[in-house]
């Protein structure tokens, strides 16, 4: 178990690393400079390090001094295509890119956890897999790392996995929240192409008009939510884009819809997908148009194992004090590719408040906003929390 004073000697180094990462954000699956900074920051630690093949990930295994299972800690490393307006001294030096989701803190925090855990390596009853992951923001980097073997990097399947995510809003600095069960939504993207028969606007009876079909689809889709989804297990269906036609007197040949779908349980996820596909095909039939549906399931629901969530809450309370840990009252509508990890091994996803003191958490700019500010002190906060989760979980396994 670790507490804040343990991280003090590391604080300057970790915050410098955080600032260096923040100044030079990289996007997606290919983060060569970020990877180099992480490797440099881990140098000298007794780690078995491998780099990703299909992405610039870093997997580091720390062998404990006592026998036991392996647990996994994850830190995502990618930034966002956002022009920074945070006003911090260490702001992004690359136009149009920003660490607007705080992944620079996750990366530096995981480096901090590596140092803390390595310092007590002999006490650890098992191994720790450190998962430095690119491509969280839509590219599914976690899935690629799983395919490349991160869950078995220690030689056996990890028995538990944890991730910490910082929040620029809602949670005051240092507050930790998690919950059993659903933590984050699933997100899907649906692209729909409707094709009829183009013609003259004066003679619709000689054409097959896709426009009324598209309009009927938009309204019918809302009925999928209100008529097939349990009101206590909600879903969101938003048609964010509708396009057809070029002039008033031309019936277009085709048109498109783009839809985002959020759901909070596997059952509703299945039901909403089936309902959307059925509704789109039915409306297309009624209008005599053809419909092509490209339904992409982006990230599944992020589900915390109840036992692991309970363990994480206990561990967090022991590390930072009872009054700084709370049970999240409901899931968040964001989504996460750590869900792919939690689909395969039990674990927990925790949020850590990073709102700078003096800013009202209720109105602070949220993650992904150009004005989002994440306080430096969250770096050691994340390091202590991650290291504590790994050490305590191995200790419980040994007990
Ligand atoms: Zn994000
Ligand atoms: Zn994020």
From TrEMBL:
Cofactor note: The Mn(2+) ion enhances activity.
A GO molecular-function descriptor: N-acetyldiaminopimelate deacetylase activity
Keywords linked to the UniProt accession: Hydrolase, Manganese, Metal-binding
UniProt KW Hydrolase keyword: yes
Needed co-factor(s): Mn(2+)
Domain Peptidase M20 dimerisation: 189-281
The protein's Enzyme Commission number: 3.5.1.32
InterPro entries referenced in this protein's UniProt entry, alphabetically: Amidohydrolase, Bact_exopeptidase_dim_dom, Peptidase_M20, Peptidase_M20_dimer
Name this polypeptide is given: Hippurate hydrolase
Signal peptide positions (record): none
Organism expressing this protein natively: Actinoplanes campanulatus
Binding of Mn(2+), residues: 101, 103, 137, 165, 368
Gene3D superfamilies associated with the record: 3.30.70.360, Zn peptidases
A GO biological-process term: diaminopimelate biosynthetic process
Pfam families hit by this protein: M20_dimer (PF07687), Peptidase_M20 (PF01546)
